[in-house]
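F.,

This is the one I mentioned.
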């Protein structure tokens, strides 16, 4: 059974293995191809125009939050299937993270989607736009981790609280400036 620290460390290394170029044997650290499912993997990097997209992860309590960003041509901006395309990219990213986590730690990872992706589309120019999306996953085996939304309890010590209550707005006796009383 892995500890919370081991799970976080394994997820961080799995996400780090998704650097641009890891889909080619010659650029990967171990000589193996890694298909993530991003748009930048399609086509030839020298002759085709590059699509700028990528993802990053962060952990908030027992949740993994995956952020995805991509540049889009303006014709994709009006695509009615854009939401399903981004959801399929998220499923590919989750599959990649599970596979890399298994390769890094030797243990399996359980990711359960909490809800749909939150997608924001913005125009950059008349030709290009970009998409920013976030999606949350519940991480399995994260026992004992308190969700961030929970309120903390007041834990001030009695002596410190008593000291704070002694505060007054009165000026000290040694103030001798004129008009300061």
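My design for it:
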């Amino acid at each position: 059974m892995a500890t919370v620290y081991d799970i976080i460390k394994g997820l961080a290394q799995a996400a780090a293995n998704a650097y641009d170029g890891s889909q080619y044997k010659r650029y990967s650290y171990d000589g193996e191809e890694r298909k993530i499912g991003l748009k930048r993997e399609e086509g030839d990097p020298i002759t085709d125009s590059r699509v700028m997209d990528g993802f990053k992860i962060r952990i908030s309590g027992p949740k993994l939050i995956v952020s995805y960003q991509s540049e889009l041509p303006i014709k994709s901006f009006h695509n009615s299937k854009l939401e399903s395309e981004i959801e399929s990219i998220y499923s590919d990213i989750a599959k990649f993270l599970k596979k890399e986590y298994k390769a890094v730690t030797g243990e399996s990872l359980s990711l359960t989607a909490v809800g749909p992706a939150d997608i924001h589309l913005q125009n950059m120019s008349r030709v290009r736009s970009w998409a920013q999306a976030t999606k949350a996953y519940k991480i399995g085996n994260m026992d004992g981790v308190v969700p961030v939304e929970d309120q903390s309890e007041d834990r001030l010590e009695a002596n410190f609280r008593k000291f704070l209550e002694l505060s007054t707005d009165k000026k000290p006796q040694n103030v001798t400036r004129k008009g300061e009383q």
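Helices lie at 4-16, 74-77, 82-105, 158-165.

Talk soon.
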